[in-house]
Each structure stands twice: as structure tokens, then as C-alpha cells.
Specification:
Layout: H1 2-9, H2 16-20, H3 31-38, H4 43-56, E1 59-60, H5 66-77, H6 85-92, E2 102-103, E3 108-111, H7 117-130, H8 147-161, H9 168-171, E4 178-181, H10 183-186, H11 192-195
Antiparallel strand pairs: 1-2, 3-4
Helix pairs in contact: 4-5, 7-8
Domain X8: 107-197
Biased composition (Polar residues): 220-236
Keywords: Signal
Length: 261
């Protein structure tokens, strides 16, 4: 049928195999997700997957470094005994980081705006129960009227609590509820920069933070004021490379080992 339609109206037929293949923007950033993309033997698909990993580690890939990214993606897309998710994660997490990764020193562990509010709320509950150096009862008011901003406050402080050995792949995952976001990303989220650890001062009393609504901003601030942990929150508008999907609640930071989602 696709070929018949193409002959009748011109153009190329639908590539069903491509459309049904695993999407590097949607698979988990884990060994399983890596295997799904590697099985396609596609450098371009693997490149997207690896760039998502970089974003989840608080880094971006500058345009000038894309040839290096493509070369690495080609190596991992071709398969082989050394082409594993664990090896890739070890390479990207090494010190110093690969030259093609531009790491943001102001990156913070924050709520993943593409995660369901219920998932984020579950991660908030777990983190509050396991925090050692801060109390969730001390969250400032401007961070308590939105589940994602509440999570920004809590996740960023929990990650800092883990010390210098903390890894975005292990301590900033929460089964997809969190992302180690570069400042260029969380600065676009309404109020996030005021809530993450080390963030800006709170907005003056009686003022409203500027809405972060733009052509590539997938989130729009909610007008409701739920209590921390509730789920009536912001909703998606579009997809950014930084964002991911998940459905399972977190059990512990260790459960996220070698898995960003």
C-alpha cells in the first residue's frame, strides 16, 4: 500500500522499518536502551543517544565538536566486543571529560520536566526520607507551589550531599525523575534558578518570575498552587534533546546505577 500511494501521488514510500525502530530520544539511557539503538547500526541514531547522555551529565556538544561526536557514534554503532553502554558511560564520566563534551560548571541536579508529576512526587518522598544535611520542612515558599520546583530544591541539595564522588548517572536519576541539567536549560524553567542549590536570590515579594515560554521551551508554569508532592503541575509543549521519559518510581540511588532512566 505505501508503494502504491507513492506511485499515485509521487514521492518516496513510507519507510516502515525506520518508523518502527527504537527512537534514540525515547529509549532509556541504560544498557537496554543502548542495545536497542546499537542494533540499528546507525551512526546518526547513536549520535543522538550519546548526545542525550552528555546532556544528562550536565554537558553540551558544541557545533565545532560534532565531528568528534559522529566519529565516536560510528564506533559504537558498528558494534564489537568493546562497544557497550558501560564502556561508553565510563568514557564520558572520566576525568578529564572527553574534549567534545563542554561541561557546565553550574549544572545542577533538577527535576526532569518531561517526567510525570507523580514520578517526581515519588522521588521527592524518597529523597526527603533519606536526606541527611537538609530538611524538606525548610523549603522556601517560592519553591513549594510547584512539584518540579520543589524537586529542584530537594534533588540539587541531595546531589550536593553526596560529595565530590557523586555521579549524575547514579545519584541524579531517580528512575528518570531527575536530570543533571546545564544552566542553559534550568534557567529557562520558571523559578528553577531560584530553587536549585546555590541558585539566585528569591524574587522580590509581590513580583512574578518571568514565564519561560518560547518556541523550544516545553513547559509552561502552572497557575495553581499545590502542596509539595502533588501532581497538578506543568505540561509538555514540545521535546528538547535534554528531556527523557520514564514510568517506574525510584527505589534508591543505587537502583539507577548505569542507568539515567
Amino acid at each position: 500500500m505505501p508503494s502504491a500511494v507513492a506511485r499515485a501521488f509521487g514521492g518516496a514510500p513510507v519507510d516502515a522499518a525506520f518508523l518502527c525502530a527504537a527512537n534514540p530520544m525515547g529509549v532509556g539511557l541504560s544498557g537496554e536502551g543502548f542495545s536497542e539503538i546499537a542494533a540499528q547500526r546507525s551512526t546518526s541514531q547513536m549520535s543522538v543517544f550519546i548526545e542525550r547522555m552528555a546532556n544528562h551529565m550536565g554537558a553540551i556538544v558544541p557545533y565545532s565538536a560534532r565531528p568528534q561526536l559522529e566519529e565516536l557514534a560510528g564506533t559504537y554503532a558498528s558494534g564489537g566486543g568493546d562497544a557497550s553502554f558501560e564502556r561508553l558511560a565510563s568514557l564520558m564520566g572520566s576525568t578529564p571529560r572527553p574534549a567534545w563534551m563542554q561541561v557546565d560548571p553550574n549544572a545542577r541536579c533538577a527535576a526532569n520536566r518531561n517526567a510525570a508529576p507523580a514520578l517526581v512526587a515519588g522521588a521527592i518522598d524518597w529523597t526527603c526520607a533519606n536526606a541527611r544535611t537538609f530538611s524538606c520542612s525548610d523549603i522556601p515558599a517560592h519553591c513549594t507551589n510547584n512539584t518540579y520546583r520543589t524537586a529542584d530544591y530537594i534533588f540539587s541539595r541531595y546531589y550536593e550531599e553526596q560529595g565530590a564522588a557523586a555521579s549524575p548517572l547514579e545519584q541524579c536519576s531517580f528512575s528518570g525523575a531527575a536530570i543533571f541539567a546545564p544552566s542553559s536549560l534550568y534557567n529557562r524553567w520558571t523559578g528553577s534558578a531560584q530553587c536549585v542549590v546555590g541558585g539566585h536570590v528569591a524574587p522580590p515579594s509581590g513580583t512574578t518570575p518571568q514565564m519561560d515560554v518560547g518556541p523550544d521551551d516545553p513547559w509552561q508554569a502552572s497557575t495553581s498552587a499545590p502542596t509539595p508532592g502533588t501532581s497538578q503541575q506543568e505540561g509538555p509543549r514540545s521535546t528538547l534533546l535534554f528531556l527523557d521519559y520514564s514510568s517506574a518510581p525510584p527505589s534508591s540511588p543505587g537502583a539507577a546505577r548505569w542507568s539515567l532512566l
